[in-house]
């Protein structure tokens, strides 16, 4: 897995055809209108199906890859989601033994440190990508979409941090917490006021990264995860999950 993000497509340079293809393919991915293996049609097939040029399709796929919605493997094709990781097998083994609050405790241990490293190593392009992902999270109206973009933002911070060992630990936690039952618990622990709070906290994290202030980035991430932890705990204790 790459530890740094691909250079984002400059939206200002996109022509209408690229924007149209981008919207169409993004919707295909979000609606999971794909085979069981998650493989997308080839560039040639997408161009034919969407009535677009190969260049527009290629630019759209590059943008979706930077958003964390697809990944590509030479000679194999383009797939929805994230590339396979060896931690998936371990996550599958321990998921039944780990409760959501324990996973949040683990996130509180590792993600502030990742945010601090991210602040040290992020480029201007990385920060621009983080802001785009935060904006997508804010604009998402459906719970599943909000969860997708929120996860993409946190994964991007972890990748930019550039520490392979810590990234593996993060990926393990991320895999464990992405179970369907756990996602339902998180959905029920959200409401509009909490979403506004989380959006503001995301902004503070990214602002600190942009300022290259590692300590502030770590503090902002810790504050964000503590709010998530407390809200999840309260929701579970109230019997609403």
From TrEMBL:
Pfam families in UniProt: FCD, GntR
Record bears the keyword Lipid biosynthesis: no
Molecular function as annotated in GO: DNA binding; DNA-binding transcription factor activity
InterPro entries to which the protein is assigned, alphabetical: GntR_C, TF_FadR/GntR_C, Tscrpt_reg_HTH_GntR, WH-like_DNA-bd_sf, WH_DNA-bd_sf
Residues in HTH gntR-type domain copies: 15-83
Top-level lineage group: Bacteria
Alphabetized CDD domains for the sequence: WHTH_GntR
Name under which the protein is recorded: DNA-binding transcriptional regulator, FadR family
Species of the source: Lutimaribacter saemankumensis
């Amino acid at each position: 897995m790459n530890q740094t993000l691909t250079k984002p497509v400059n939206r200002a340079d996109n022509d209408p055809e690229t924007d149209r293809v981008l919207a169409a393919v993004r919707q295909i991915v979000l609606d999971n209108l794909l085979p069981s293996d998650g493989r997308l049609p080839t560039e040639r097939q997408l161009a034919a199906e969407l009535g677009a040029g190969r260049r527009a399709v290629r630019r759209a796929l590059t943008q979706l890859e930077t958003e964390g919605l697809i990944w590509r493997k030479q000679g194999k094709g383009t797939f929805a989601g994230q590339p396979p990781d060896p931690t998936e097998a371990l996550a599958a083994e321990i998921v039944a033994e780990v409760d959501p609050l324990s996973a949040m405790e683990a996130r509180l241990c590792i993600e502030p440190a990742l945010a601090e490293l991210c602040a040290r190593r992020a480029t201007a392009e990385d920060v621009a990508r983080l802001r785009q992902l935060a904006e997508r999270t804010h604009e998402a109206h459906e719970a599943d979409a909000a969860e997708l973009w929120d996860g993409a933002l946190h994964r991007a911070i972890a990748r930019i941090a550039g520490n392979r060992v810590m990234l593996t630990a993060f990926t393990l936690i991320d895999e464990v917490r992405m179970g369907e039952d756990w996602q339902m618990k998180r959905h029920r622990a959200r409401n509009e006021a909490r979403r506004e709070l989380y959006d503001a906290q995301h902004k503070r994290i990214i602002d600190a990264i942009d300022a290259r202030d590692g300590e502030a980035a770590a503090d902002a991430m810790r504050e964000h995860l503590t709010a998530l932890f407390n809200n999840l705990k309260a929701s579970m204790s109230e019997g609403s999950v």
